[in-house]
Amino acid sequence: PERVVGRVARIYSPGDGDVVPPITIRQAVPPYPGRVLLAGSVIIDLVIDPTGAVESAVIASPPNQGYDRLVLGAAKSWQYQPAMLDGKPVKYRKRIQIALVPASVR
């Protein structure tokens, strides 16, 4: 049971009233690409559906040496306890920053 605005289900975001944000169940970190030695980060915007699955993932930060594709691939397998509103699961938009740390620095 999703809240519907017109014919499209509303996507809630942080700060939307009484919505309880999703809780991470599984979030595998993607492998660091090849021989790149620079640390940094990638910011992604997720839409988490009412089942807790990642419906969509989009890079929100500038491109980062091929790491973007790895992050987006990993995001498709992430699982959440869905966001809730009035005891019902709802779609939710969430922004996540993934740190890039080369194995040689860890």
Written overview of the protein:
By secondary structure, the protein is mainly beta. The protein has one helix at residues 67-75, and strands at residues 4-5, 8-9, 11-12, 23-26, 40-48, 54-59, 79-81, 83-85, 88-100. The strands form three sheets. Strands 3, 5, 6, 8 and 9 form a five-stranded mixed sheet that branches. The chain has a two-stranded antiparallel sheet with strand order 1-2. It has a two-stranded antiparallel sheet with strand order 4-7. It starts with a strand and ends in a 6-residue tail after the last strand. The model has no long low-confidence stretch (mean pLDDT 82).
Helix coverage percent of residues? under 10%
Number of helical stretches of at least 4 residues: 1
Low-confidence stretches: none
Largest sheet: 5 strands, mixed
Identify the overall geometry.
elongated
Give the amount of beta strand, in percent.
Answer: 35-45%
Which structural class best describes the helix and strand composition? mainly beta
Sketch the topology as an H/E string, one letter per element: EEEEEEHEEE
Mean pLDDT: 82
Could you provide a short overview of the structure?
The protein is mainly beta. The chain is 8% helix and 42% strand.
Main features:
106 residues, two-stranded antiparallel ribbon, 9 strands, 1 helix, five-stranded mixed sheet, single chain, mainly beta
Give the helix/strand layout.
Elements (H helix, E strand, L loop, with lengths): L3 E2 L2 E2 L1 E2 L10 E4 L13 E9 L5 E6 L7 H9 L3 E3 L1 E3 L2 E13 L6
Parallel strand pairs: 3-9
Antiparallel strand pairs: 1-2, 4-7, 5-6, 5-9, 8-9
